[in-house]
Each structure stands twice: as structure tokens, then as C-alpha cells.
Specification:
The complex is a heterodimer of chains A (235) and B (245).
Chain A (H helix, E strand, L loop, with lengths): L1 E10 L2 E11 L4 E5 L6 H8 L7 E6 L10 H4 E4 L11 H11 L5 H9 L15 H13 L5 E5 L7 H16 L3 E5 L3 H7 L2 E6 L2 E7 L5 H12 L8
Parallel strand pairs in A: 3-7, 3-8, 5-6, 6-7
Antiparallel strand pairs in A: 1-2, 1-4, 8-9
Helix pairs in contact in A: 3-4, 4-5, 7-8
Chain B lengths: L1 H12 L2 H27 L7 H8 L6 H12 L1 H4 L3 H7 L3 H37 L9 H27 L3 H22 L1 H4 L3 H8 L10 H25 L3
Helix pairs in contact in B: 1-7, 2-3, 2-4, 2-7, 3-8, 4-7, 4-8, 7-8, 7-12, 8-11, 8-12, 11-12
Classes of the chains: A alpha/beta (235), B mainly alpha (245).
């Protein structure tokens, strides 16, 4: 389970997170929504120990990321700020992670197959398309077969088949009892895949509820009402 | 820690940079040794004396600057290619990552140093034969220079890794290093030799018993360079605890 409590983070005078509080439960896909700069990525980075909050806590299975005994087997993450050495093959990138994290080397080929990069695995990542890089980031997240997945805008760069594929695997992970936290701007996708939605605006949680069969149009209306008052879609 | 070091060395092996820099070190060492033998023989220096051997073999350390560049790519390269996030997700205790990178850089430097000294000796043997001379293999000065060259390369690898940890922008780290070692240091050595000998490259030259200047003794230079590497890395580790990845 993911639990963020009163997380505050300033960058200079900007409050990137202003008391963010929410939970993401096992067996569910929780969508973190918000306009650009709302604090979604900051919240995820705080959860992953990449950014130190000024105050508040962000726990994964009751512990901060730094306290996890085996981070790669506990949490898988794919963030937009991740990159790959352009001269290293996708397979070797995964092997390096598997070596550092003491994971079974056989997992490398398993995850490459799982994300559809089995044939491209031996190619250098400098030649990968945005979608292939996104798949490799997902493969890296899955390497340790973790119970918690944190994905920042995983749809970016994926083609329609890729988006449908990602939707299915996210549903599959949740069905396996894993905790899935995903940020997205694509509200139609959120309506299709998420069980719970947390909307952040200006660093604060402004809405936290079950998705409960809400349609994409209705979700868009709610999102705009909460995040850009006065610019709601006409009914 | 063993897994982290293995992963760092695996990362180095699986990109071209390290191999290109190794090839550069080999080429520079061969050319430097051949040029030293040719130049000194033409100047009628006794190349078979201890002084002659020193004058030729100290250039076995010529490629150390490239080992330093490799060291910088081991640490700052993680930020250039945005792989640092993945590295810190695997190992959230960042000081462990820095220690693993330092050990990898030092050991890679040893490998580069061994290759460079082997190339230097083989080139020298051939160059001596071309001049109708024989390189005296063995002897105190012979081993002192070769061991010094390996230590020089190892510590420069470590120095690069520590500089790259402190200055995470790879290009800035390389420019600062070049500015200090190629521009500032030679000027200080000329203007104030007693200060210049405390610069890293002067210590490196002391390690290979460079006959051309007022340098420290090899063991003191090695120790001081090691202290520099450790001190910069400790400062980088303290700063890293507060930084965002």
C-alpha cells in the first residue's frame, strides 16, 4: 500500500506539494490526476526517495523508500525523468539493474518478452522510439516483480495498441493484488483503467474518490471544474 | 556492495566510451615512448642507464588524463544520460553508490595502468632495438616507474569519479578539470613550483618519477593523491544526501 501524508515540498517560492495526502490500496489502480505543474511528479519523486520533502511522510508498505530492504522487489517505477545510455542495449540496461539489485538474470528476457521488446533488446537504446523507451522503462519497473508500481505518464509515446496493452497489464497487476499508482493526462484512459482517482491542483489534493464507472466526458468536466474554474466544458 | 561494483563494471563494459579511451591510452603511450626513445637517442643520452630508463618509461603515465575522463563519465555520466534515477531506485543509499563507483573507477584505472605499462615496456624494447640498444628490464627504478604508472592511472580514475560526483554536469566537470590541469597547473608550476607540486598532475608525474621537475617523492605523492580523491568523494557524498536525483 502507498500512503502519502501531509507531504510538503518547496522549490524556491513555489509550493510543488502543499500537504498532499492520499492512499493507494492494493488490488486497485489509483490514478493521480492534475494539470501540468500540479505536483504529481513531485509526489511520486517524494515516494521514491528521489526528492526530500520539507515535511510529511510518504510510505510504501509502511516504510519510506530508503528504509526498504529490497527496493526493486518491492517497488517498480517508471518516471519521465529516467533515461538510458544511448550506447547500451536495452537488454544490457536491464542486466545492469538486475546485477545491482541481485535479481535473477533470467528475469531480463522475461520482462523483455512481457513488454514486447524481445527482438529489440539487443539494439542500442539510442535507436529506440519514444514508445520503445517507455516499454523499456516499464520492463525495468517489472524486473523485480514488485508488489507496488508507480508509473508517471506511462502512455506518452505509446501507439494505440501500446496504450491498450498497457491498460490490460495495469488491470492484470491490480487483479494480482498489486498496488498501482499511475499519473496521467489522458482522462479517457483513466476512466477505463482506474479504480480510484486522486486529483491534485497547485500541490493540494482537491478530489479523492472511486472512479465508479464515471464516463470520460463526466470525468473531464469534473477535472476542469476542480482545476481550472471558469473553463468547464459546456453541458 | 559486490553486486553494485559488478554492475558498475558491467555498465562500463557495455558502452564504447571505455574501450575508445583505452585505445587512446594505448596509442598515446606507444607514441610517447617511441618519441622519447628517438628524441633522447638523437640527443646522445645514455638510454641504458637508470636515468635513461627513467627518461623513457615515465611517459607510461601519459594516458592518465584519459583515465580521469573515464572516471568522470562513471559518475557525472549518470546525470548526462539520466540513468541516475534508476541507479538510486536500485540503491537508495546514495553513499553506497558513490563508494561502488569509486572502487570501480580505481580498479578500472588499475587495468588501464597495467595495459599502459605493458604497452610502454613492449614499445620501449622494440624502440631500443631499433636504435641498437637494449632496455634494461628489471631493477629498482624500472619497477618503481611501472608500479607508479599503475597507481597513477588508478588514482586518476578515482579522482575523475570523485570530481564527477561533486560536479554532476559532465561537460562542466571535464572543462573544469582541463582548465585546472592543462592551463592553471602548468602556469603555477612555472610561477611558484613549491605550490605547483601540490596539484594532481604534478603528483601523478611524481608517481612515475618524471625527471623533469621539482616533484614530491612517489610514495608521498600517491598518498596525497589518495587523500584528495577521498576528500572530494566525502564532500560529494555529504552534498548528495541533500540533493535531488
Amino acid at each position: 500500500m502507498i500512503e502519502v501524508r501531509e507531504a510538503i515540498k518547496h522549490y524556491g517560492l513555489t509550493r510543488a506539494a502543499d500537504g498532499v495526502t492520499f492512499r493507494a490500496q492494493p488490488g486497485k489502480v489509483t490514478a493521480l490526476l492534475g494539470p501540468n505543474g500540479a505536483g504529481k511528479t513531485t509526489t511520486m519523486r517524494i515516494l521514491l526517495g528521489l526528492t526530500r520533502p520539507d515535511s510529511g511522510t510518504a510510505l510504501i508498505d509502511g516504510r519510506s523508500y530508503q528504509e526498504l530492504d529490497d527496493p526493486r522487489r518491492t517497488v517498480g517505477a517508471a518516471l519521465d525523468s529516467m533515461g538510458f545510455h544511448p550506447g547500451r542495449s536495452g537488454r544490457n540496461h536491464l542486466r545492469a539493474v538486475a546485477t545491482a539489485a541481485n535479481l535473477d538474470p533470467a528475469r531480463v528476457d522475461e520482462v523483455l518478452v512481457q513488454v514486447g521488446l524481445a527482438e529489440a533488446g539487443s539494439r542500442r537504446t539510442g535507436g529506440y522510439s519514444r514508445g520503445m523507451q517507455q516499454r523499456l522503462a516499464l520492463a525495468t519497473a517489472l524486473l523485480g516483480d514488485p508488489g507496488v508500481l508507480i508509473l508517471d505518464e506511462p502512455n506518452i509515446g505509446l501507439d494505440p495498441a501500446g496504450i491498450a496493452w498497457l491498460r490490460e497489464i495495469m488491470r492484470g497487476w491490480a487483479a494480482d493484488g498489486r498496488t498501482v499508482l499511475v499519473s496521467s493526462h489522458v482522462l479517457t484512459e483513466v476512466a477505463l483503467v482506474a479504480d480510484q482517482m486522486v486529483i491534485i491542483d497547485k500541490g493540494r489534493v482537491v478530489h479523492d474518490s472511486e472512479v465508479g464507472g464515471i464516463g470520460a466526458t463526466e470525468l473531464e468536466r469534473l477535472f476542469l471544474k476542480l482545476t481550472t474554474p471558469g473553463q468547464e466544458v459546456a453541458s | 556492495m559486490k553486486a553494485l561494483i559488478s554492475a558498475e563494471i558491467f555498465k562500463l563494459r557495455t558502452v564504447r566510451t571505455g574501450w575508445v579511451l583505452l585505445g587512446t591510452v594505448v596509442a598515446i603511450t606507444m607514441l610517447s615512448v617511441a618519441a622519447a626513445v628517438s628524441g633522447l637517442a638523437d640527443a646522445s643520452q645514455d638510454l641504458e642507464s637508470a636515468e635513461g630508463v627513467k627518461a623513457v618509461l615515465h611517459v607510461a603515465g601519459s594516458g592518465a588524463l584519459f583515465v580521469l575522463m573515464l572516471g568522470i563519465t562513471i559518475t557525472a555520466g549518470e546525470y548526462r544520460h539520466r540513468t541516475a534515477v534508476d541507479t538510486f531506485l536500485t540503491t537508495p543509499k546514495r553513499s553506497q553508490v558513490l563508494v561502488a563507483k569509486l572502487i570501480s573507477a580505481l580498479s578500472t584505472g588499475v587495468v588501464y595502468g597495467l595495459v599502459a605499462t605493458s604497452v610502454a615496456v613492449v614499445t620501449a624494447v622494440i624502440a631500443y632495438q631499433v636504435k641498437g640498444l637494449s632496455l634494461p628490464l628489471g631493477g629498482a627504478i624500472f619497477w618503481q616507474i611501472l608500479i607508479g604508472a599503475v597507481v597513477y592511472a588508478a588514482l586518476f580514475g578515482g579522482l575523475g569519479a570523485s570530481i564527477g560526483s561533486l560536479i554532476r554536469n559532465q561537460m562542466v566537470a571535464i572543462i573544469v578539470t582541463i582548465a585546472v590541469m592543462i592551463i592553471a597547473e602548468p602556469m603555477v608550476i612555472v610561477l611558484a613550483p613549491s605550490v605547483g607540486r601540490w596539484f594532481p598532475a604534478a603528483m601523478g608525474r611524481a608517481l612515475v618519477s618524471d625527471p623533469g621537475g621539482n616533484y614530491m617523492s612517489s610514495p608521498v605523492a600517491g598518498l596525497m593523491l589518495f587523500i584528495y580523491v577521498g576528500a572530494i568523494m566525502i564532500i560529494a557524498a555529504i552534498i548528495e544526501r541533500r540533493r535531488d536525483a
